[in-house]
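From the shared-data thread, chain only:
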Amino acid sequence: MKWTSIIAIYPLFWVMSAFFVMPFGLRTHDQAQAELVPGQVSSAPVNFRPGLIALRTTALAAVLFGLYYANYVNGWLGVEVLDFRYWLG
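Structure, as tokens:
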């Protein structure tokens, strides 16, 4: 795999991981018994920490990309897996 492909594919894994990681560990004001600021929506998180989310996202994206790259090198799953005739016999 070319390094330019790695540079193009890893951010896709990072963004996908960010959407997966973001909801974990967040609490709303109702859950934390915190006071709302006037004009603030009640579902806004009270303990949003973007640095921690970015760290978790980077770790998850590295693991997922590592699995993707290992599959690319070893050829565990190929295009034939997407062919339904392969699965139906």
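The radius of gyration is 20 Å.
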